Amino acid sequence: MRASFILACGAVALASVATMVACAASGDEAEPVPPQQEGGGSALPDADVPDVDPGEDASGEESTCSEAGWCPTSLPDEDLTMKDIWPFPGRALAVAESPTLGIKVLEWEDAAGAWKYIDDGTQNEPGFGDYIGKAWAPNEDELYFGIAPGYVYHGKRPVPPATAWTWTRHPLESSKKSVGLDDGYPTYPAIQARYPALGVWGTSKNDVYAWHANTVYHFEQVDGGGGRWVAEYVADDPSSPNERLFFLGAAGTSADDVWFSGARSQLGAGCALVVRKTAAGYQKVADGVIGGPYWPCFERPGVMRIDGAEGWLTDIQAIGANQFLGLKGARDVVKISAADDGRYVVDRAPIPYAVTPTGLSSLWSAPGAVWLSGWGRVVRGTDVWDGGAYRISTISRAGEPINRPIFQVRGASNDNLWAIGARHAFHKTTP
Description:
By secondary structure, this protein is mainly β. It has one domain (3-428): Methylamine Dehydrogenase, Chain H (7 Propeller), CATH 2.130.10.10. It is 1% helix and 50% strand. It is built from one helix and 37 strands. It has a five-stranded antiparallel β-sheet, with no helix packed on it. A four-stranded antiparallel β-sheet has the order 3-37-36-35, with no helix packed on it. β5 (91-98) and β6 (102-109) form a beta hairpin.
């Protein structure tokens, strides 16, 4: 199914109620609880799926890798929960959490076939590390990531004869006096798990943004080689004391084409939030009005409301100038484009419930394919804007389904992909 429509400011549409699913929250990864299906009962994340394509290769013999070519890699400690990853040809940079080690930063090298730690340990000093945010790497020699209580770490590869990565950290001076878990690490009802409202992304190594709770920051160089994070936009119009606004992701192609995704949330209900930065400054593109506890999202005057699965707009990725893909309500892939006349064109490619009854938590796109991950599975969408379909990309360990969350799928190409989560990191190098 594909829905395509044009929304101008003030367009009216109906929202659907978000599906409730479950996933492991930070600190609970050691023994995650399987998600619940709608109507009760435990879901079987890799059970047979009726009336859909069963996978990419349903007849292969059992091997170390899954039938679709997802191969497990050996982590340096078994209790690591891999949270985000940035792949490059021949290597990858990742951030992880551990109940025994705290926050860790890792590098994978194809040549060595192994992961190694590259952090300096300061991220686990007292007062740090309650949760980790989204990471971003402008190249294979640098990595940024957000970390509680509201800092950004920046690491650089050593220049010989130095052997260790160098790390600096800068605070995000919040628009509030303090940002608690409910603002910086809110619970996302669509997956019944916490989702970080904290992260970093940039258009280049010299144009880097961060977000924390309801605020977008831009890194500003200062004399002497240092820098600071300057607040550039604050979403500060809650409709009630119980309502919260969060930023959850960013994407774009240049300093004058940057999108920030997020949510307006209250007591289990949520509206997708989109803010765009152009040469003219920041503009709110999408928002909504929450009708009440667990009620749909209604139209907000002056901005568009994105139709489809009710819920937050989480992972987004630019696919061209003035255009991005996003994961909305854990169930819909949406494409939003800026038209020349100032309007915004929205295409929606819903993911069938039969393919993923437990919803999805991450998105990454490459030419011809959209990759998504959720509890115990990876989903591949092929040509979904041109009559294509979604199907399960089989993933397993020792021939058995993965009954743990897969927090992020991301790649450098369709034949260099990673799917990471609680105690696992799978690498796919086949088309």
